[in-house]
Structure formats: C-alpha cells, structure tokens
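Weekly modeling sync, notes
Attendees: S.R. (lead), two postdocs, one rotation student

Agenda item 3: backlog of single-chain predictions. S.R. asked that every request posted to the team notebook include the full sequence so nobody has to chase files. The rotation student volunteered to paste the first one in as an example of the format we agreed on. Action items at the bottom.

Example entry:
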Amino acid sequence: MTRTTAREIAIQMSFAAAAGRLEPEALMEDFFSEEHYGSLGAEHEIFSERPDKKQMDYIRRLTLLTAENCSEIDGFIERYSKGWKPERISKTALSVLRCAICEILYMDDIPNSAAINEAVELDKGYDEPDTVAFVNGVLGGFMRGEFSCGPGEKAEPAAPAEEEAAPGAKAEKETVPSAEDTGTEEAADK
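Predicted structure, as returned to the notebook:
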C-alpha cells in the first residue's frame, strides 16, 4: 500500500468521523476489523491491501489529529475560502482540506508540497474541476497567508497577529506555488 492510498483512507476516516456517528478511535476499530475491512476489497481497489503497521500508524495519526484540531483547521479553511460559503464546500473537499492542513501544521515528517499536491490529486477523484481548483486555491492562500517565504525558499511561519497565531505551525517546510504558477487564478476568485 502506498502513502497515497493510506492518505485516501485517512481522508475517508476523517469524512466519516466528521459525520459524527462514532468517535474516531471507535470508528477506526470497527472499520479496520478483519471482517469489515476484508469485505471492502471487492468494493474499491484502495481496500484491496490491508495497511501495514507503519501505514496504519499514519492513518490513525492523521485521522485523530484532524479530529482533535478540527475547529482550528476549519477556521483556516473559512479564512482562505474567499467567496465560498461553508455550506457550498463539498463534504469531500472539506475532508481533503482538513487532512492537508493538518499534515502541514502538525505532521513534521510530511513535506508541505506533498500534503498539498496529494490533496489536490486525491480531490480530483471525488469533485468537479472547479472544486479541485478551489481546494488548490485555499491551500495556496493558506500557505501564503500563514507562512512567509520566497520562491524556492523553505517556509517560515509568518509573523502572525497575536490573535491569529497558528499554534503548532511548523517551520522549514516547502511551500505551494502561487496561483499564477499553477494556473488556478480562478480558485482565488471563488
């Protein structure tokens, strides 16, 4: 199983956890039971292989961190969702954004560029192109707004206003290309 597949499973776990039927730990315990997980392989190829210990640790960590920090992460999404009302954001796009921002803020072992690129690529499998562009635009705006760096430099936390400091924000990470570099200018206008 690749990290991309593990990330997609974590996004699905975060989606289900946000629905609130079960606490994230109980949800994962039920989902990854031998019987349940074994039955999913026929439904979708991402479930054809069981996560190994390292992948399971990653899925668990991302799912739990996303749930624990959901309010803060949602605040960033709302701040950088210029022109999009929260109810307009698809639940899938919201889960993708939450996981990507969580990886950027709380998972030092994941490069920012990997979190962003994987989020955009995974969202292409679930949402329409305008929503994918929106996801890219929100993540780009988040990086430009919360981290300061020039092209090719390592990201440094921006000097935030005292009230807007992002607790636990990581430094020395790569940044997302500007909207001009990615051809997603329309994402910033949504």
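Discussion: group reviewed the output briefly. Residues 70-190 form a domain with the N-utilizing Substance Protein B Homolog; Chain A fold (CATH 1.10.940.10).
Action items: rotation student to repeat for the remaining queue; S.R. to check formatting next week.
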